[in-house]
Amino acid sequence: MKNKKFKATVFGIGGGGQNIINYIYSNSDNLKKINFVSINTDEQMLLKSKTKKFLLDDKTTKSNLKNFFIKVFGKFLIKKVPLALGSGGDITNAILRTKRYKDIIEKEIKKSDIIFLVACLGGGTGTGTSTVIAEYAKKLNKKVFCIVTKPFIFEGERRMAVAISGINQLEKYADKVFTIENEKLLENKNTDINTPLSKAFNEMNQEIKNIVLNIFQDFSQKES
Ligand SMILES: Nc1nc2c(ncn2[C@@H]2O[C@H](COP(=O)(O)OP(=O)(O)OP(=O)(O)O)[C@@H](O)[C@H]2O)c(=O)[nH]1
Ligand SMILES: [Mg+2]
């Protein structure tokens, strides 16, 4: 008999991370037992996500915290509240904003036995926030699996260096870090100049979905 208490949460962090988990969430009937949570500093982007959402606002007043709760748990955005902007590639900003929501993030982590962190590295939020959540999850004795992408070469050396330092940080806390290179999309013989990027991304999303599914099933069986 299956252990009904066995639970997993997939966090999609930053713009790319939320895109990927949005795809997985929207294209999986067999993953409905998994808790999907999009986390972003960019409110406009976050509104596109169909999963549960956590906004890392850049303000700390009580009224904004109240608005944050309404936005997380309510269905409609309150129009009067100004939109929270992304970190603009600033890891320090993303880390600071993540730490302000420690209690809320830890509450979500505690619901699960396995934590998956999905992020596209190279920007601020995916790189900064994922390392903070990985640390929280490991300190709460969870199994932590990270699935991250490295930026395209054309995005420049700085973004690549940021991504590599992010991977090094994640390896301190994760049980395993799966790294996927965006650049591979350009080398794929099925991808040419006429292939829409969204189609190429979806193949990668599918690959990431399979990693999550395999790990989840492995653990589910062990727990049965
Ligand atoms: N595979 C894939 N990669 C993406 C996607 N969106 C962005 N990326 C890659 O991820 C890197 C980081 O971009 P974002 O995820 O938008 O950045 P962010 O984490 O939101 O960071 P800030 O906006 O700077 O706070 C980019 O440099 C791209 O290489 C996506 O949908 N799929
Ligand atoms: Mg962003």
Helical content (DSSP H or I, runs of 4+): 40-55%
Percent strand:
15-25%
Secondary-structure element string: EHEHEHHHEHEHEHH
Top-tier CATH class: Alpha Beta
DSSP strand tally: 6
Small molecules bound in the structure, each named once: guanosine-5'-triphosphate, magnesium ion
Which sheet architecture does the biggest sheet show? 6 strands, parallel
Brief rundown of the structure:
The protein is built from nine helices and six strands.
Q: In words, what does this structure look like?
A:
The chain has one domain (8-223): Rossmann fold. The chain is α/β, with parallel strands linked by helices. It is built from nine helices and six strands; from the N terminus they run βαβαβαααβαβαβαα. It has a six-stranded parallel beta sheet, sandwiched between helices. The chain is globular and about 45 Å long. Bound molecules: guanosine-5'-triphosphate and magnesium ion.
Give keywords.
224 residues; alpha/beta; 6-stranded parallel sheet; 6 strands; 17% strand; binds guanosine-5'-triphosphate; binds magnesium ion
Present the secondary structure layout.
Elements: E1 8-13, H1 14-26, E2 35-40, H2 43-46, E3 52-55, H3 62-73, H4 91-99, H5 102-110, E4 114-120, H6 125-139, E5 143-150, H7 157-173, E6 176-181, H8 183-187, H9 197-223
The structure holds guanosine-5'-triphosphate and magnesium ion.
